[in-house]
Design brief:
Number of strands of chain B: 10
Order of helices and strands of chain B: HHHEEEEEEEEEEH
CATH architecture of chain A: Up-down Bundle
Helix content of chain B: 25-40%
Oligomer: heterodimer
CATH superfamily of the largest domain in chain B: Cupredoxins -  blue copper proteins
Largest sheet of chain A: 2 strands, antiparallel
Number of helices of chain A: 17
Shape of chain A: globular
Number of helices of chain B: 4
Order of helices and strands of chain A: HHHHHHEEHHHHHHHHHHEEH
CATH class of chain A: Mainly Alpha
Distance between the termini of chain B: 75 Å
Number of strands of chain A: 4
CATH topology of the largest domain in chain B: Immunoglobulin-like
Largest sheet of chain B: 5 strands, mixed
CATH superfamily of chain A: Cytochrome c oxidase-like, subunit I domain
Strand content of chain B: 15-25%
CATH class of the largest domain in chain B: Mainly Beta
Chain lengths: 572, 263
Amino acid sequence: MILSQELHEHHEPAGFLRKYIFSTDHKVIGIQYLLTAMFMALVAAFLAILIRIQQAWPETAVVAPETYLSLVTMHGTLMVFFVISLALVSAFGNFLIPLQIGARDMAYPFLNMLSYWVIVPACLLMIASFFVEGGAAAAGWTAYPPLSALKEAVPGSGLGQTLWLLGMALFIASFTMGGLNFLTTILNLRTKGMSMMRLPLVVWTFLISTILGLLSFPALTAAAIMLLLDRHAGTSFFMPAGIVIGEKVLSHGGGTPLLFQHLFWFLGHPEVYVLVLPAVGIAFEVIAAFARRPPFGYRISVYALLVIAFLSMIVWGHHMFTSGMNPYVGEYFSTATVLITVPFAVLGLNLIASLWRGRLRLQTPMLFGLGIISAIGTGGLGGLYLGTAASDIYFHETYFVVGHFHFMIGTVTFFAIFAGIYYWFPKMFGRRMSERLGMIHFWLTIIPMFSAFILMHVQGIGGNLRRTYDPSSYAFNEPVRFMHVWITVLTFVLSAGQILFLVNFFWSLLFGRKAEDNPWEATTLEWSVSSPAPHGNWGAELPVVESGAYSYDPSSSDKDFLLQAPSWKTSQ
Amino acid sequence: MVAGFFVAIMILTVLLFLARPWIPPVASQHGNGIDFLINYLLLTSGVIFIAGHLILSAFVWKYSRRGAPPYRPLSSRTEWAWVLLPVLLMTAISEAGVLVLGLPIWEELYGKEPKDCITVEAVGKQFEWITRYPGKDGKFGKVRPDLVHDIENPLGLDKDDPAAKDDIVLRGPLHLPEGKLAQVQLRSHDVIHSYTVPQFRIKQDLLPGFTTSARFRPVRAGKYEVACAELCGLGHYRMRNEILVEPEKDFQAWLSQQKGWFE
C-alpha cells in the first residue's frame, strides 16, 4: 500500500529549543539518540574497564565483590538497552527510514519526540542507581529472582534494583512508541514507486526488528511489574514457599522463579535479533555501495530475515537448558534453536557473495562492513555449541557464552554502528570524517576486539565461569587464567582506539571537509537530497522511485550507478 | 591488508583452539559423549570457519585489485541454487549434533531414574554447599525451613521424623564411590544456584521450591572441584566444595564411620 503524502510546506521551526531540543524532525531525533547512546557507551565502557582490571589482577581488589556484581549487571544492561538499541535501532532507524522511503518525516512526529524524551529519564535513573544505598542493581542483567527480589540476598537488590526496573519500564515505553512509528511509517509512507521489494535491505531489517520488539517487549513489561510487586507489595509471583535467608523464613509462597526466566527470555532472545538484524542491514547497504554491485540474492535475504524473525520468537528456552525446566521442552528448544544457523548461513553466504566480481573500495565504512561478515560467522558458529543442549551443559555460564554474545551483540552491532556513522555522517552533518583517523580507528578496534573475544571462547572451553569476582578462587581456571591479563591489555588498546573515534567524530563535526550530496556514489534515496538533509527532506515535490535499491553497474565506464529517483533532483 | 587480517585471525584462532586441549580432562561416563559432541562441533564449525574466512579474504583481495573480472548479474535460479548449499549443510550439521549425538546424552542425564545408583543430596545456600546422605535406612528424613539453624541444624532436619535420625549432614567434601552412578538431588534454601563440576561435565541449577538433580557416573578416583555457576550474591565466586571419588571399598569404609546428625 502506497499512500501519497499530502503536499504541505514544512516550515522549519525557528527557535533553538524547537529546532534542536524538542524537535519533531526525525533526523534531529535520530542524532539525539546517537549522541545519547555515545554518552551511555562511555559510561558502560568505563564499567567494562573496571571489570577487566578486577579479572586480570584480582589480588588488587580494585572493587569490592558487591560493586563488581553491580558493574557486570549495569555494563550488560546499559550496553544492550541504552547503547546498542539506541544507536542501532533508534538512531539509525529514525534518521534513515523517512529518507530512504521518500517520506517527509515519521508518521507520528510528536510521538517520536516523546519516545526520545522518555529515554532521557530512563538513562538518568540507571546512572542515579549507582549512587543510592546498596549501589546499582547486582543480580545480573537478567535480574533473576529471588536474588533480584530480596534485598537480604544482595545489597544491589535494594533501591538500585527498583530504579533498574523503573528504568527498564521507561525504556520499553519509549521503544514501543518508536516501534509503532517505524512500523506505520514503513508500511504507509513510502513514496510513489517504492514497493516493498524496492526497499533498501536496512529498512527491511528495521521493519522486522520493530515487529519483533513490539511482540516481545510486553512480556518483560509484565515481568518487571510482577517483580516490582513481589519486591514492594508482598506478592509472590516468583517466590516459592520456604525461602530461608539468615535463619529467617520468608513469608512468600506459591510462586516460581522459573516463570520470570521464561518471561525474561521471551523478550531477551528476540531482543538479540532486534539488535543483530539492523546490523546485518547496515552491512548490506555499505557492502553494496563499496562493492559497486547489487547485493547477492536480495529477495532471498528478505526471506531469510523473515525466517530468522519467526524462529527467534520460539527458541527463548535455550537460555534455560540447565534451569530445571522439563528436559523434553529443553530438547525441543535445542532442535529449533540450531535451525537458526540455517537462515543465518544464508545471510552469510549472501554477504560474502555480494563481494563476488565487485569493484571493492576499501574505505572506512567498507572495512567495518567486512568486519561484520567475519564477526557474524565467528559468533554464529559459536552459537552452535550453546544451542546444542548437551554441549551447553558444559558451556553454560562460562566465558564461552560471554565471548559468543560479545561477538554477536558486541562486535557485529558496534561494527555496524561504526560503519553506519562513517557512511551516513555526511548526510547527518554535511561534513566528511577523516579517512586517515577512521582507518587507524578500524585497526585499533578490530584487532583487540576480535582477539579478546576469541580468547574468551578459549577460556570458556577451559571452564572459566562468568560473573566470578575472583577467577583465582577455582583451581580449574588456572590453565586459562593468564588470558585474563591479555584480554585486559587488549581492552586498553580498544579504549584508546575509541578515543580516536570520538576525536574524529567531534572534530569532523566542526571542521570536517564539506560533503557533497552523494559522496559515496550510492543509489538509495537519501543520497538525492543535499547534505545535510534539509528539514522536510524533499522540498516541494516527493521523489518518484523508478528502480530497486541497488542499481549498480560496474561494467559501465563513466557512471556506474543510478539513483533510485533519478529525475527528482532536476524537478527541484 | 584487511584480507590478510582475516586469514591471520583465522589461523590464530585455529592455533589457539588446537594449541592444547584446554578443556579439563573428563572424569564421568556421559562426559565422554559430551566431549565427542564438542569435538564434532569443533571439527564441523572449524571447517566452515576456515573455508568462510579463506573465501572472504580471497574475494576482498581479488576484487579490490585492478583488472579483476567484471561484474555479471546472476539469474535468480543460480542464486537459489547457491543458497541450497548453506541450507543443506547447516541443517545436516546442526541437527546431527542435537539429535544424533546430543539426544543419547540427554537421555543419560534426564532419562528414567536408574535403580542401581547412590543418591545423595546437595543443598545450596549463600555461599556454601551442604551434603546429606540418607543414612542406613536409605531414606532422606523430613526437613522444615523454620528449623534451619546455621550451626545446630543447617538443613532444618525434623527430629520427630524417624527417617531423619540417621541422616548424615556434612559441610565438607562430598564422597562418592568410583564407577557407580550417582544421583545428586539439589535443593536451594535461598536464591538460584547452579551445581557444576567441570570435569564431570555437569551443570544443574538449584531452584528454591524445587528439587532438581544431577546424574553422573564418576569413572576416575580423585578430587574434583564443585563450583556455583549461577550468580547468587557477593560470595558467588567462592561458593566451592569438593567431591572425593574413591574406590567402592574405601567409600564404604568412610561411610560406615559417619554418624547421623542426631546420633
